[in-house]
Amino acid sequence: MLFSRLNQRKLLGLVTIGIVLLTVIAFVQAADVDPPIWQNQGQSVSSLVVGGSNLLYSQGKDETSLAKAVLSTNETGTWTNYTGLLNTWTDSFSDASKIGEGTKVWINAQIRENAEIGSECIISKDVYIDHAVKIGNRCKIQNSVSVYNGVTIQDEVFVGPNVAFTNDKVPRAFNAEWEVTPTLVQRGASIGANATVVCGVVIGHYAMVAAGSVVTKSVPSHALVMGNPAKIVGYVCKCGHRLNDHGLCKACGKTTELRTSGENQ
């Protein structure tokens, strides 16, 4: 009887140890993954490449709707379907939105109905793109940016992390008849991290808004603005470097016409 009890205790102890080991292994494996991650053929990605009309893009073909599949790459870089699906994430994409070929959309982004995003853009983590927003080609919208209805972003625009656009000039929570005030960011402009863009302005071609600035007035093309409220402190070349008083860029050798007021050309 004593022997039997000892064996039972040993067996119970071994089972307990086994359960603990399995739990630790499962925890370690789970900790190595930052969901949502989709894996295929030994590699993992946490972004999508999608085609026009919100259809996934695979080797030049529209394969299936975004609500039914995601993509990942194999070792040769060929786009292939993967059936592992997280509906809770893909539901953040409206079927009525349009996303251009080659655009990459990262986790936790939300793209609403009738939004239009061009080709070869990067829509980073936690970005919110409101309904009817228009974004051009080859843009970079960095983490946690909010782009609200009424904002138009042209081609090759850089929007830094945590930039906030607005669309209500006189906001009141109780005003049910408020009107959208549009904002335009022209081709090649750059907006630094944590900047706020008050609606109703135009940020000109290749202008640069310094990090943390509050833009309350339109910014001329190639102007460098900073502060609260943002003011012109200089001018920058298309390549991004400062221009001298004659509009010459010492970095690339090109000369740019300087505009201090008037329409952004």
List the helices and strands and how they pair.
Elements: H1 2-31, E1 38-40, E2 43-45, E3 47-51, E4 55-58, E5 61-65, E6 70-73, E7 79-82, H2 87-90, E8 98-99, E9 103-106, E10 110-111, E11 116-117, E12 122-123, E13 128-129, E14 134-135, E15 140-141, E16 146-147, E17 151-153, E18 158-159, E19 164-165, E20 183-185, E21 190-191, E22 196-197, E23 202-203, E24 208-209, E25 214-215, E26 223-226, E27 231-235
Parallel strand pairs: 8-11, 9-12, 10-13, 11-14, 12-15, 13-16, 14-17, 15-18, 17-20, 18-21, 19-22, 20-23, 21-24, 22-25, 24-26
Antiparallel strand pairs: 1-2, 3-4, 3-9, 4-5, 6-7, 26-27
Sum up the overall morphology in one term: elongated
Could you report the average pLDDT, rounded to the nearest whole number?
Answer: 76
Biggest β-sheet: count, sense, barrel? 11 strands, mixed
Strand content: 25-35%
Low-confidence stretches: 26-91
CATH homologous superfamily annotation of the domain at 46-70 and 85-235: Hexapeptide repeat proteins
The second-level CATH architecture of the domain at 46-70 and 85-235 is 3 Solenoid
* Secondary-structure element series: HEEEEEEEHEEEEEEEEEEEEEEEEEEEE
- Which structural class best describes the helix and strand composition? alpha/beta
Gyration radius, rounded: 25 Å
CATH class of the domain at 46-70 and 85-235: Mainly Beta
The termini sit apart by 96 Å
CATH topology of the domain at 46-70 and 85-235: UDP N-Acetylglucosamine Acyltransferase, domain 1
Strand order of the largest sheet: 5-4-3-9-12-15-18-21-24-26-27
**Distinct helical segment count:** 2
Fraction in helix: 10-25%
